[in-house]
Amino acid sequence: MGPSVLVVDDQEAFRAVARALLERDGFRVVGEAVDGATALLAERELRPDVVLLDVRLPDRSGLEVAQAIRATTGAAQVVLISTADYSHAAAGCGAKAFLPKLSLSGAALRAVLAEPP
Amino acid sequence: MRAPGRDWVWPLLWAASSVALGLFAATQQHQEQPERPGLLVADLVAGLAFIGAGLIVRRMRPGNRCWWLLMASGTTWFVGSLATSTDTDVALAGFALGSWHFFALSWLLLAYPTGRLPGRREQALLGLIAALCAVRSLSRLFLYLPPDGTGCECVSNRFVPVTDGRWYAAIDLVFPWALVTALLLVLACAVARWRRSSRAGRRMLTPVVVAAAALVAQIGYDYVLRQEAGLVGPRRDALFLLVVALRVATAIAFVLGLRQQRAARSAVVDLVGGLAGHDTAPDRLGEALRSALGDPSLELVAWEPTEHAYVGEGGRRLALPVSEPGRAATLIEQDGTPLAALVHDEALLEDPGLVSAVAAAVRLTADNERLRGELQRQLAEVAASRSRIVAAGDAERRRIERDLHDGAQQRLVTIALALRLTEARMGPGADPATREAVTQAVKDLSEAIGELRDLARGIHPAVLSEAGLHTALGSLLDRSPLPARLDVRLSEEPTAAVAATAYFAISEALTNVVKHARATDVLVEVTESGGTLRILVVDDGVGGVDPRAGSGLRGLADRIDAAGGTLSVTSPATGGTRLEVSLPCE
Fold first, then answer.
1. pTM, whole model, 2 decimals?
2. What is B6-260's CATH topology?
């Protein structure tokens, strides 16, 4: 059984494609969230192994959400995703890595998760 | 030395004529009294002192009429010297007209220092002296009977229409008393003016009043007491030398006094110079005016349009003109609108030009202050307006970038991922042409998304808004094809406007380094101290950058200027470029 994933993005179409891509590569998408507040609730409730977190959310920055997850449970590994480049912002907010949305795939996610801290 | 102008023709002609008259009188006296050449020289010196003083005053103060009164005193002195001529007609002219020297001296004393008679009292007094001199002249011309034998004056009279000498004797007896009385009144006027004067005014009047007092004392002694005492011989010669010495001293006193006035006016010139571009706070200005006019009681009061009144120190309202005796007010207006007023010693009005000059200086200062204030206000408005334009531009760029990100970019990325999913789901039996088309579509779409991302980042880097300046600069340098070192030391994140300006400044600098510098190493340093963000971009390239050339650096300079910062580029032709930016953190 692959790692469980929570997909956080305000675009429904993207969430659907991401779910399909990741499940095809063996991940279990255990939940979806459309904004930061929902993401924090879902993370506490679902306890996913990975939170795939969009940086730009309607209610707050994904960087803040990552910091909040890190500060509360700290259990999930957060991978930031965006169409813009946030590779330098990941470490600062406690995220494991940054993955450009266009590069999203199960293999790419697995690769960034496998990177040493 | 500059040659005298045409306006000097008449004064010099007058002076030359007077000197010629004096020399002529001296030669006549020499023929009459060859044994006393020293007295002739002394007589010449007395007249020349007035002529010289007149020329000096004219050069020193061309607009002051005292110069010709001094000249007239010298000329009439020489006229009086003609009385000892051997020529009977010339001697009679000198004998008859000599007393007008006192008229010229009196006018000079009454009109000093402006050269104009200050009031009716002075005009009446001068009229009285003129009448006395006229009576004296006419009596000597038409009533004087030379004594038989060898009279002391030795003047014959061909015009005498009467044979009775009693009229002349009566006038000759009364005239000295009347003249001395009139001269005492002149002296009293001068003393009264001295008493009314401010410190500066007294400095100007003192030498003249002292000299005039000595002169009047001598004239009184000479004309009244000596007549009765009947001095003769060496004592008379000594007295004549005293007369000459007092004339010379008087002439010098007038020059010295007017020099004091010029010094006061110089103080006003200094005042105007001092006020230009310096501290012109009302208390400082008041102190400068008190010093320039030599009036410690002077007060500068401002016109308060809201209260419709003049307000002095401590907010005290003043009713002008002042009712207090000995005080006067000079109003200062600008285009008919009250601006301020000088409340000062009434004696300052003795020289209205001086007070007017000071008032003009105050008006100039006020005008200067108003223009400076207006300019500063306009500059502040322009600076604020530029800042607002830049901020509005930044906000618009952020909005466009966000629209691109949330709209087109997001949809295209989703489509690309869906196509990739489709490609992955195609089984081994899928049509190769279809598979290739999908693969090509994913590739083209990825390139388009990349271009769109670069465009959006050029408009506004999203990471700057979301993650701050340090992270955004890290991304920027990562994309640079040159090895670049980044050193950011900030205690807190700058405001969005400062961060955007700093980011674009560094971005532009790096673009220039990559394009033109042929550098192998770049250092980017961002620090903050004392409310100022400092940026340093140093490369080891070819140098020779001209900050005025190229629209990129010019646009950058404009943007930094709009943010109230400074840009400096040091780029010697020998190599290396150092770009420094200072930005106020607001």
1. 0.54
2. Rhopdopsin 7-helix transmembrane proteins (1.20.1070)
